[in-house]
C-alpha cells in the first residue's frame, strides 16, 4: 500500500487538532463558543456522520457476517478492560510510574481516543464494512468511558453510573436505519445533506478536540516524571507489543476470512493501541475533578498528544509494512 495518502491523512488530522488548539486559546472562545460548538457537534454532527457511514457500509458488513459486529464490540470492551488491568499492574510495580495520582494516571493509560482520531483516517485504509464494525468498537468504548471515568476522577463518594451519550444515540440510529432499510426511504437530497454535514462535522470535531486542549499550557508536565514514563510505555512499548498481536491476528484470520477483512482487523488493533488518551478525559476532569487533578491530567494530555505526532505515524507505517 502507498503510504503517501496515509501520511497526508494523519498530517491533516493533526493540523486540524493544532488549529483548534490555536483558535480557542482566547478565554472568550473557550468559555462562550467552544461549549456550544461541542454540544452541536455531539448532538447533531457526529450522529449524522455515524448514520451516513454505517449505512454506506452496512451491506458489506452484513455480507462479511454479524459475528464481526459482535467481535468488534468485544474487542473494544476487551482492549479497554485489558488496559485497565495492565495499567494497574504497571503503576504498582514500575518505579517510574509511581505517582501521587494513580487513578488519574490509570485513566490516561486505559482510556484512549477510540473514536474521533481512528475514524478520521481509518476510512482511507479499511473498507466501508470494517468501518461499520469500528462503530461497534466505539460503542463499547462509550459504554465503558462514561461508566468508569467519572467515578475514577470524581471527588467525594463516586458511583458507577451508566450514561447514554450523543455518540451512542448516533450509532444506535445508524444501525436501526441500516438494519431496517429505512434509510433508503429518505429523500435523496436529505441523504446527501446528512453525508455532507456528517463529514464536515468530523473535521470540526477534530478542531474542537484541539480546543479542549487550549486551556492547557506547555511544560505543565515537567514536574511529573511519571508522565514521561507513560509516553514510553503507552505510546511506544504497548503499541509495539500490540503490533505483534495484530500481525498474528491478521495472518491467523486470513486463513478463514477474506484478506481485506483480516487486514482491516489488524490495522484497527494497531491504531487503537497507538492513539493518545481520549480528550473527553478533560471534559470529565473539569466537571468533576480538583484543580490539582486537572493540572496533572492536562500535563499528561499535552505530552501524549505531542509525542503521538511522531509515534502514531510510525506505528501506522509499521502496520502497513507488516500486515
Protein architecture, described:
Helices cover 79% and strands 0% of the residues. It is mostly helical and 323 residues long. It is globular.
Short description:
This protein is mainly α and 323 residues long.
The SS-based structural class is: mainly alpha
What is the CATH architecture term?
Up-down Bundle
Order of helices and strands, N to C?
HHHHHHHHHHHH
* Poorly predicted parts: none
Shape: globular
Taking the sheet with the most strands, its summary is: none
Multimer state: single chain
In DSSP terms (H or I, runs of 4 or more residues), the helix count works out at 12
Average pLDDT metric: 86
Q: How many structural domains in the coordinates? A: 1
Amino acid at each position: 500500500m502507498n503510504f503517501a495518502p496515509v501520511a497526508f491523512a494523519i498530517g491533516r488530522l493533526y493540523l486540524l487538532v493544532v488549529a483548534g488548539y490555536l483558535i480557542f486559546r482566547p478565554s472568550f472562545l473557550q468559555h462562550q463558543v467552544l461549549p456550544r460548538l461541542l454540544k452541536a457537534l455531539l448532538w447533531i454532527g457526529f450522529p449524522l456522520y455515524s448514520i451516513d457511514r454505517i449505512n454506506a457500509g452496512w451491506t458489506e458488513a452484513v455480507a462479511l457476517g454479524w459475528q464481526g459486529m459482535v467481535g468488534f464490540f468485544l474487542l473494544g470492551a476487551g482492549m479497554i478492560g485489558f488496559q485497565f488491568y495492565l495499567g494497574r499492574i504497571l503503576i504498582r510495580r514500575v518505579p517510574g510510574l509511581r505517582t501521587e495520582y494513580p487513578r488519574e494516571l490509570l485513566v490516561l493509560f486505559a482510556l484512549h481516543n477510540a473514536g474521533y482520531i481512528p475514524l478520521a483516517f481509518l476510512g482511507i485504509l479499511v473498507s466501508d464494512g470494517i468501518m461499520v464494525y469500528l462503530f461497534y468498537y466505539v460503542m463499547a468504548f462509550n459504554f465503558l468511558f462514561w461508566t468508569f471515568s467519572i467515578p475514577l476522577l470524581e471527588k467525594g463518594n463516586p458511583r458507577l453510573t451508566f450514561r447514554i451519550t450523543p455518540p451512542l444515540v448516533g450509532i444506535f440510529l445508524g444501525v436501526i436505519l441500516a438494519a431496517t432499510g429505512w434509510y433508503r426511504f429518505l429523500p435523496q437530497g436529505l441523504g446527501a445533506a446528512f453525508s455532507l454535514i456528517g463529514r464536515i462535522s468530523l473535521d470540526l470535531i477534530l478542531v474542537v478536540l484541539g480546543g479542549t486542549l487550549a486551556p492547557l499550557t506547555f511544560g505543565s508536565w515537567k514536574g511529573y516524571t511519571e508522565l514521561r514514563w507513560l509516553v514510553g510505555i503507552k505510546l511506544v512499548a504497548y503499541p509495539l507489543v500490540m503490533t505483534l498481536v495484530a500481525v498474528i491476528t491478521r495472518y491467523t484470520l486470513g486463513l478463514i476470512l477474506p484478506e481485506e477483512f483480516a487486514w482491516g482487523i489488524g490495522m484497527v488493533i494497531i491504531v487503537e493501541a497507538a492513539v493518545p488518551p481520549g480528550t473527553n478525559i478533560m471534559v470529565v476532569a473539569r466537571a468533576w475533578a480538583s484543580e490539582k487533578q486537572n493540572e496533572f491530567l492536562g500535563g499528561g494530555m499535552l505530552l501524549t498528544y505531542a509525542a503521538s505526532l511522531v509515534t502514531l505515524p510510525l506505528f501506522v507505517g509499521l502496520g502497513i509494512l507488516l500486515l
